[in-house]
């Protein structure tokens, strides 16, 4: 919205926040933002962010939505343009688009797995764009299906997780990160939230342990004591929520074991090649 307001103040004819994705002046502003971040130098090390080894990946934006174009063509074109621009400056880092995972008109047979609305994105088409290195999915059944009971939300979540893992594995052939998931304690119990965490983590582990596409999950959101003014119901404070903390720690340890296993296998493969086997 801010970018569109800036363009309007400069005399651009923009009437909707969705002009963010199409107006050439607005897009030039956003490219300036990308360039500024990538070329900024770490004030401690002097290393430019585009060369910074401690950065894993860039996200084009968080949860892009363009409801004025349900065909998905607008966001498809924007991701294509911005991914190419970012990669022209920084080819060192992974890139993802920040998608929530909704299926679009180009994946009509998959739209049955969406919540009951469209936002102008397409999980498959958007993540097939050159320059997008891995897919992302968000999962908020309590927000997306607020009038449904817990069992219906759980059923939706299982279908949502499994279909995205399968599509990342078989169609995209790219990793998928469940970049946001959670359940508000304002509308549910901690036990229900723990159940959701277990459901998400089980799907990820089942895929990852077999060498599948699921690469990990990031819950929304970790807090420490003293952050009361930021609470939105989704916060996890380890000292207050030991059962949730235990689930998170257990998942981290399990995925770390998988990482070590595959690291050993890669080392064995390198050793065999060096021996000429």
TrEMBL record:
The keyword Nucleus does not apply. It catalyses: Random hydrolysis of (1->4)-beta-D-mannosidic linkages in mannans, galactomannans and glucomannans. It comes from the Eukaryota. Keywords: Glycosidase, Hydrolase. GO terms for biological process: polysaccharide catabolic process. GO terms for molecular function: mannan endo-1,4-beta-mannosidase activity. InterPro entries: GH, Glyco_hydro_5, MAN-like. Residues 18-221 form the Glycoside hydrolase family domain. It is an enzyme of class 3 (hydrolase). PANTHER family: MANNAN ENDO-1,4-BETA-MANNOSIDASE 1, PTHR31451. Belongs to the glycosyl hydrolase 5 (cellulase A) family. This is mannan endo-1,4-beta-mannosidase. It comes from Manihot esculenta. The lineage of its organism: Eukaryota, Viridiplantae, Streptophyta, Embryophyta, Tracheophyta.
């Amino acid at each position: 919205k801010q970018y569109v307001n800036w363009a309007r103040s400069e005399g651009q004819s923009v009437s909707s926040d969705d002009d963010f994705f199409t107006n050439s002046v607005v897009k030039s502003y956003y490219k300036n933002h990308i360039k500024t971040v990538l070329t900024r130098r770490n004030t401690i090390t002097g290393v430019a962010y585009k060369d910074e080894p401690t950065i894993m990946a860039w996200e084009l934006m968080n949860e892009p939505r363009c409801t004025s174009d349900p065909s998905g063509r607008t966001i498809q074109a924007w991701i294509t343009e911005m991914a190419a621009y970012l990669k022209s400056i920084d080819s060192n880092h992974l890139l993802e688009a920040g998608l929530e995972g909704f299926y679009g008109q180009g994946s009509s047979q998959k739209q049955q797995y969406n919540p009951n609305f469209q936002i102008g994105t397409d999980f498959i088409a958007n993540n097939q764009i050159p320059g997008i290195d891995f897919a992302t999915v968000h999962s908020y059944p309590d927000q997306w299906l607020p009038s449904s009971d817990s069992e219906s939300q759980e059923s939706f979540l299982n279908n949502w997780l499994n279909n995205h893992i399968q599509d990342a594995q078989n169609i995209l052939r790219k990793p998928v990160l469940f970049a946001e998931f959670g359940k508000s304690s304002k509308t549910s119990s901690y036990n229900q939230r723990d159940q959701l965490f277990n459901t998400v983590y089980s799907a990820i582990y089942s895929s990852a342990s077999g060498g599948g596409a699921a690469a990990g999950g990031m819950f929304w959101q970790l807090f420490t004591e003293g952050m009361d003014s930021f609470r939105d119901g989704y916060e996890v404070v380890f000292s207050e929520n030991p059962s949730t903390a235990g689930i998170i720690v257990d998942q981290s340890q399990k995925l770390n074991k998988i990482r070590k296993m595959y690291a050993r296998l890669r080392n064995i493969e390198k050793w065999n090649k060096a021996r000429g086997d």
